[in-house]
């Protein structure tokens, strides 16, 4: 017993001694090491060195403090080099192709739907102006960000626009973050997209590779094919005629680094289809849809505006450009492989993300330009109403009782065979996803205010007939977005029935085009424009008690009235003069007629002036 206690005592003493000796050894060693370092760094302590040392220790308030774990990801060397670049389209400026290339231009326009000949004169690594929110320039992002694979599906893309997509992504990404750019050739028929592309990429773009699909698969399956071979932590899908701008990548990756179930969309800017000028589309909006599943946008929330340029929540993505972790993408089953060609996939993925535990945000500091084509140059590869079939699949699996609102507007979808939905419904069950009602009330909570599931009735419907020449009626003659229209003989074919809808816009027939005045000129033409249902340039109202010359006691100070010349339907500014409307056009010498409206649906005989009202 005693022996044992002695032994323990000796052991304790020995251990304490050992710890003490080891401690002394390391302290002395560190001191010697430090002394050596100091002797190397400060050979002679000059006043300047002292000041410098002081500055480093006591960082003045105006110097940026980089918090631990964060980093300024800007590539300042590249930014400086790009700022010196000059030439066609440089700094994102418009490039006007010299007229001598008109023939080449026309040929390439036909096959691309944009001015591809102009693109050919613009450097593949052209510079762009920095149009980001000013605060983006100072933003720091996590140092530890996941790696990214960029997936770019294409079918018969033009050479220079395709390469500019890849090169802008590579050049403007930190080397450590961008693993690869995968170009997925969806069975293109242009010869240069085969061996020539493979050779070019092999020789010039080590991070880029091309995957050729053996047969035409459509956008959705081409994206899936690219995603399957991607090795990065994050999948970034891009369109094949885009340009990534400065520091676009870290803002897409950071929200995913913080929570892998976040899907992030960049701001999509506009590359002009004619001149390749780079400009903003807007400064942000939340993605939405109407009940025919047309993509729409909702205004930012007050808190989103206040937090700019921090990422804000968005109910659905536009579709073409987004980042998602590979892990989450495949947990969700990727895209429904039963979706054909294109259409509806952006809703399928968006609903799935939200309903199955993820979130979707837009990152204002990540901006990518996109060429919106003037027209679609390719024939549709799909059979029958493939978009309708896709919508039906999405509605059946994800939209619950809200699917009825779609079918009510598109009864033909009920007759389409959507195919086998077992696997998709199993995913929803397996991931314990929430209901569509949850999505509509918690995520897209303001959507039904703008796009009510059951449309309120029109305010009025009928012909718009000239009072001065009662045989003439406004006729849009089935014209399209961007077109003007005029008067025709009443009842002579054409498109002469109009609706003043509950959106307070005017639509011919049942088409989603609206009367729109985008110019602020005193006598601006009224054009047909895709309806946005948000008032603004498309806000019209009528005042049944109002006739020209009447006293006007409304609260608005500037009013416009619909007038017509022999050739155009115009809008004209009318101003108040001591309580009376002064009609400017009367003194201008032009031949114009005030249009009176006969709204047969509501007021069979009463005539009144249709006004467009600008609220100051
Ligand atoms: Mn596109």
From TrEMBL:
One of its GO terms (molecular function) is carbohydrate binding. Pathway: Protein modification; protein glycosylation. GO terms for cellular component: Golgi membrane. InterPro entries: GalNAc-T, Glyco_trans_2-like, Nucleotide-diphossugar_trans, Ricin_B-like_lectins, Ricin_B_lectin. Its main location: Golgi. The keyword Manganese applies. PROSITE patterns: RICIN_B_LECTIN. It is found in: Golgi apparatus membrane. Its EC number is 2.4.1.-. Residues 462-588 form the Ricin B lectin domain. This is Polypeptide N-acetylgalactosaminyltransferase. GO terms for biological process: protein O-linked glycosylation. It is a single-pass type II membrane protein. Its cofactor is Mn(2+). Pfam families: Glycos_transf_2, Ricin_B_lectin. Keywords: Disulfide bond, Glycoprotein, Glycosyltransferase, Golgi apparatus, Lectin, Manganese, Membrane, Signal-anchor, Transferase, Transmembrane, Transmembrane helix. Belongs to the glycosyltransferase 2 family. GalNAc-T subfamily.
